[in-house]
Structure formats: C-alpha cells, structure tokens
C-alpha cells in the first residue's frame, strides 16, 4: 500500500518537475564556482592581511626579525627567534611522544584487537579529537603541571642535569610548566589524527600479503615491521607531518602550560613561548598602528609560512603512497 | 593597513548585527578587563533603575583604546592612562572611575605575614635574589624563620593593566628595574614563568613551592589568597586593605595631574598601599551623537553617587575621592561638546 502511494507521488513529482532551464543550471554552476573561488579569495586575503599588516615590523627590524631573540614591548624591540624556536621545539616534542603511541594503537586496532574491543577504543580516540583545546589547557594546568613539578621534573633534574650535553635539556627549576609539558599535552591532542591516518594506511595493506607473511611463519612483530609499515611508509610520514602541522598552530592549551617566557633555553623544563601563544597573550593590549601589533601580525605570517611548508610536504607524501 | 581595515570592518559589522537586539538607547563600551566586574554590576543596577542598558565588552585596554579611537563604541576603557598626545589627536576626554590595587601572593609554608618591599620584589623578578632566606628578605622579616627554598617568580603572560601597575611599582622603587626592564602592560621578564590571567598566576603560585606572584586585590580577596605586606614610601609596613588603598588615593597629586592621570604608585602617607592605580574611561570630546554621549555621562554620574559607590565597595574596588569626582564633572560640562554645545550640564 505504502509502496504504491509513494510510487504514485514519485511519478507525480517527475511529471510536475520542469526540466532544468537554461537559466537555473548556469546559476547553480556559477554558485558552485563561487563557493570554490571563495576559499581561494579568503585564504589570499588572510595571507595578504598578515603580510601587509606585518610589513612595517619587517621593515623596521630587517630580515633579522626572523631570528632575533629580543622581545621587549617596553623598548619596542621585537624579534621572532624565541617564538619560532619554541613553536618548532614543542611541536617536535609532541610528535616524538605521539608517534610511538600512534603506531601502537593503530596496529593494535587493525591486527590484534578482538572485534568487540575495536569499536570502543576507536571511538575513544575519536573523542580525544573532539575535546576542545581549552579543556586540554585546563587539564594540563591543574593536573599535569603540578604532577610534573612534583614527581617528574625533580628526579630528572637531579639525575640528568649533571651529565654534559644531555644535561642541558634538564636544567632549571621544576616549574611544572614548560616546553616538555606543552609537548606532552600537544602529543595527546595530535594523537587521534595521526592514529586515524595510520589505521587507514594499515587497513589498506592487502590482506593477501600479510597472510602470505604469516604463512611463511612470520611473527606478528615481523609482519608489522617488514610488511605493514614498509607498505605505507610514505603515507605514514605524511600523517606525522599533518600531526606536526596541527601542533604548530595549537594555541589555547599551549598558552596554559608552556610558561610563557620570551627567553631562549635549550632545557625541556624551561618556560618558553610559541608563535600562537605569544599572539594570544599580547594581542588584547596591542593598539592599532603600534609596532607591537605589526610584529604580532608578522609573527602570524611566519607561522602561516611554516604551517604551509609542513602541510605541503605532508600532502605530497600522502599522495605518493604506494 | 588596508586589508586589516577591511577585515576589521567585516568583524565589526558582524558584531553590530548581533548587538542589534539591544535597544537603540543602550550604551556600548569596551576595554579594560580589570574594572569589568564593577561596570557590569553598575550596568545591571542602572538598567533596573532607569531602563537604559549598558553593554560592556571586556576586551583589554588596547582593544578599548582602538575602538574608541575608531569611534565604534560610545566609550572606551583603559587601565593604563593614554598618552597626552594620543588623547589630543583622538580628541578624547579621560577620567578615572574606580581605584584598584595589586598585591603580592606567595606560596611559603610556615611563614606568616611575610614583609617585602619594591626593591626586593624587583630583585626577585630580576633573578638577583633567588632564595627565600636571602639576607635582604631576612632584614625585612626580623624574627621570622625563612626557609632555604628557591624563589620562583610568576608573572602575567597576557599583557594586562595589572602588569602595568606592578612593573610601574618595581620601576619606581628599583633603579635597575627601571633601566633594564621598565614598566608596560607586558615586559621582557628577566626570569620566572608566565601564566594567563589572575587565575593562572594564582594557580601557578599555589602549585609551586616557593613561588611569588602578583594579582589584583579583588581577585586575592575573593579567593582568600595569602598576600604579603609591603613597606611603603614612608617606611611603614602596610597590610593590603581598603583603608590602605584609600590613603594611597588621597595621597595622590590629583591637582597637578594632566588628564586625571595621577600616579598612585608608591605615594607618601603612613598607611598608603604602594601598588594602587585608577582605571580610566575614554570619552569622545566631539561625539557624533550628543544624546548617546549624554547617556554615557549620566551613567557615570550615577555610578559616582552613593548607589554606585556601594556596589563598587562590595566588589572591593575603591571609589574616587570626592574632590576628584567634582573635577571630573566640571570636565564633562566644559569639554564634551556636540556642535559647540555641552551635551551635559551639572
């Protein structure tokens, strides 16, 4: 009964439907073009705004703005060195921590996990990606920072700081907040993205190759090491770069836990600053036309360029997979 | 700055679209976050009484200055007074509303009523004094047992009026600080760790043994934080209290201050708290709408009255001394004009 009615309605609709006219279709296509071009224009305008707004700072300080480590709002001497270093340093820590974890989770999910466990873990990882940045910041500030200050940093400083060379990474008072803490929080934040792409890559390994490897007596680890990983290596590197790209621009959580000091230090425990955290901190009090605002816009442009390079690399690597 | 303006205009028109729900007579202000609680409390009480609403966006002093220079709001608010030439070129009238103060907080077990002074605080924030049992701190705290614990200075990472007031105090009391660091809403801190907002500084100090930080008194009072005493210019030890802030306000040189920018930092007076400062309103002297400008003045006229003072005091802000308010009212009547006519008369 239902079927006949809906069938009749369907035919009614078809007969009532006027064929797409000469006007409406080009309009629709034009709108689609507009949507596509809109993205390009928007991106272009943002880049242009950042560059044009920051240009006076670049003129004032010259190209040395890029590596100068001075950031003094009182004398209006600005340089991006500390922030560029902090951005790269903290993002690299994040990737170094997230990478082995992502490998483990992805391989567990695709190969080891029994069916009933696969979904809950998969969903949990996706939920990690859904937690807002500010929540990670608060969690980091109230839970991780005190834990680091009380239990992680003091013993590490005692044991490792006297060692030459490596010791430089473990100098300073146990503040809790600092580069390492920021890297750890970001590692958790980029974990879901890297893991999701790893799972996709590992699932795309043809079962026949894996079965063959098991067939000739390879262990789980050997299959993982010699079959799955080499099969998707480039795509995996691309996934890591994508994670790195996300870590570079992370703002809110980092601002809470990095310690916000515009000083250069090689120590993992020293407070530092990233480009994004500096902009977030300094922007509200930067007045129109001030050198500070121009320096901040220029910082934004530098971050844009760094992210663009990383993203372009990751695209390139993901595309050349297989 | 062309593109900045285009994007800025887009953002503003979006904002206008959202705020369109408020009635036309409502007053719009933006700026400093430090006085935001009292402005909002005043706005609520004023709306109940008169029906005129006030929307105050706490976007930071720099943002408040930008918006009033561009005339996108009816008044701007700033913690640090604006420079005289900038006020002149933007033809703005600047007047203070309430007084607030900054206190030092510490995390030091077993030490009650720690006493510090500006010179010592500046040395701590420069990394020159690194232990709590330093001779300079012990000299101020005779008879107290100070621990051999490293000092961790904590500062505001976000640029803020609080940092401006605090660094002004350090610069006023320590020549090295004045020469090497200076006073501003954010500075290049020689040592220590930065945390975002009062809550960030308070949280970091609470989490870190041996930490010292600075927050607004209203925040410390509301959260019952352990504050230190300070030695003031007269050489007396003062405990942060409303009375001590009022003494600082009365000791300030209001008569000679241009644009009401009287410094209350480290004033003379036996009981004066040395880190005290006013927060300011910026009002166009040549308003585009006389009616709107009059509404703003009426609002602050009410706020300076008994009702406004009671609300401010309940939130631990200090109302302005009476003579200063009289001067401000004179300035309103004589300086804010639309088409050559005063928009408000006392």
From TrEMBL, chain A:
It holds the Pfam family BPD_transp_1. It is a multi-pass membrane protein. Part of the binding-protein-dependent transport system for phosphate; probably responsible for the translocation of the substrate across the membrane. It is found in: Cell inner membrane; Cell membrane. The keyword Transport applies. The keyword Metal-binding does not apply. Its main location: membrane. Belongs to the binding-protein-dependent transport system permease family. CysTW subfamily. Coiled coil: none annotated. Keywords: Cell inner membrane, Cell membrane, Membrane, Phosphate transport, Transmembrane, Transmembrane helix, Transport. This is Phosphate transport system permease protein. InterPro entries: MetI-like, MetI-like_sf, Phosphate_PstC, Phosphate_Transport_Permease. The gene is pstC. The chain crosses the membrane at residues 27-51, 78-109, 121-152, 179-202, 235-258, 295-318. CDD domains: TM_PBP2. PROSITE patterns: ABC_TM1 (PS50928). Residues 84-314 form the ABC transmembrane type-1 domain.
Automatic annotation (TrEMBL), chain B:
Keywords: Phosphate transport, Signal, Transport. Belongs to the PstS family. It comes from Ancylobacter koreensis. Residues 20-306 form the PBP domain. Pfam families: PBP_like_2. NCBIfam families: 3a0107s03, PRK10918.1. Residues 1-24 form the signal peptide. The complex is composed of two ATP-binding proteins (PstB), two transmembrane proteins (PstC and PstA) and a solute-binding protein (PstS). The gene is pstS. Part of the ABC transporter complex PstSACB involved in phosphate import. This is Phosphate-binding protein PstS.
